[in-house]
Each structure stands twice: as structure tokens, then as C-alpha cells.
Amino acid sequence: MERIQKIIAQSGYCSRRKAEELIIAGKVKLNGKIVTRLGTTANGNDVIEVEGFTIENKQEKIYVLLNKPRGVVTSTKDDKHRKVVTDLINIPIRIYPVGRLDYDTTGVLLLTNDGVLTNELLHPSNNIEKVYVAKIKGILTPGHKKTLEAGVVIDGLKTAAAKVKIKKVDKKANTSIVEVTIHEGRNHQIKNMFKALGYEVEKLRRERLLFLTCNGLATGEYRFLSIKEVKRLYSEIKK
Ligand code: URA
Q: How far is residue 180's CA from residue 145's CA, in Å, rounded to a whole number?
């Protein structure tokens, strides 16, 4: 944690003294809220705006790609003392998951202390592509496939257009494996999309987030993103 006038000065926006003046004048926002107290501190996950400009928070940025296992909470701590995703990552820097995968969902999960990237990846207007593979109870009918693609109503709101591929059907076991590509991130979205049509999701895995996959990572393993991958993420959100 560092004082925000120091972070502002480190970004090169202005001197520390000037930053203090701007804070007192109510020109500085921390995570969207005006702060006027000079002792306010922030970390690499926080978004600081000065006179309407988001400044670069130059604390070391870390980007971790985890192949999330089942039975782990996507959080940094859990009231019920269950295992959380950050328990699986052995680094001394605080990072946070970007979005959420359910307790029983596996696959691609990004964690970082880069608040700017996190906000952009989660912002609905950026249409970030996510690919899930679901094992569902029942045989998905061609009609229901089309309905899923066109959008189903969840909590009174229709989901945006999705791509749906039936990968495998097991008539004996009465299950289907279905790949669903979406650009939104509503709570339990995939499970609720199937539920809206009467199907139960038995297993769910996020296969891809933009270009990031878990290729080469065993379940529970993680790796750091390369600089090239981080740059690519930034270029994808500017599209
Ligand atoms: N949709 C869900 O239903 N659950 C997840 O974990 C992710 C997307």
C-alpha cells in the first residue's frame, strides 16, 4: 500500500506536491470515489483518476493464468474457510481474480493486481469472448441450440447472441457436451442459460478467455503471462 500522492507522482502525471493539492481540491478519485484525505493509500489493484484521467499505477503488475480446479472458491478469502484460488498461487504479492468461476467450474482464470485491465476485461461494453464447455443432462435439441444462440431470458433480461456447438451426444447416458461462446459475464450465466430451457449443467469448464487457454497446465497449475500476452490483452480491449 502506498500513499496516492506518491503513486500519482510515480506515474509522471505531476509532482507529489501538486498531487497533494489536487487531492485536497477534490480532483482525485480512487476506484471511482473522490478522496480528499492525504493519508489515503492504494495498491496496484486500485484505479486512480486525476482530473478525469486514469493514471498508470506503476507498482509491479503480476498476471497469473490458473487452471482452476473444482472445489475452490474464486476469491481471496472465504467466510466458510473453504479453499480459495489464491491459496493455489504461491507468490508474496496480492492478486485478485478477474471475474468469477463457480465453485465447481474449472478452467481458465486470470488473476492480477492490475485494476485497469481487470475493469476493462469485466466491462460489458468490451465484449470479451469466453468459451465454455458444458456437460448437460439431456440431449440438446436443434431448436434449443438456436434459442440459446439467439438469447434466452434470465431474470427478465435477454442474453446477447451466443455461439453454440454440440460437440458430443451420448444417447445411452442421456448427456450432451456443448461448447458455448459468450461475450457477457452475468452470474452463473451458462448454467442459467441451460436452466432457462430445462437442462441441468453437470460439469462446466472455461476453455478460453480471449486467446488464453490452459494448454500445458494441469488442473490446479498456474503460469505467469508473458509481456507479449499482456500487451495482446490490452490491444484486444481497445478493439
Ligand atoms: N457460467 C456459469 O454458470 N458458471 C461459471 O462458473 C461461469 C459461467
A: 10
Ligand 1 contact via 204 beta carbon (within 6 Å): yes
CA of 101 to the centre of ligand 1 (A): 6
Q: How many other C-beta atoms are found inside a 10 Å radius of the C-beta of residue 170? A: 11
Angstrom distance (rounded) from CA 239 to CA 229: 16
- CA–CA gap between residue 217 and residue 156 (Å, rounded): 38
Between the alpha carbon of residue 154 and those of residues 39, 158, 195, the distances in Å are 44, 6, 9
Identify the segments of the chain with pLDDT beneath 70.
58
Q: Which domains does the chain have, with CATH numbers?
A: 2-55 (3.10.290.10), 63-122+217-238 (3.30.70.580), 129-209 (3.30.70.1560)
Whether ligand 1 lies within 6 angstroms of the CB of 85 is answered as no
β-strand partners of 224: 64
What's the angle, vertex CA 184, arms to CA 181 and CA 190, rounded to 5? 60
In the chain, DSSP assigns E strands to: 2-3, 28-30, 33-34, 41-42, 48-50, 53-54, 63-68, 96-97, 105-112, 130-137, 153-154, 157-158, 163-170, 175-182, 201-209, 212-213, 222-224
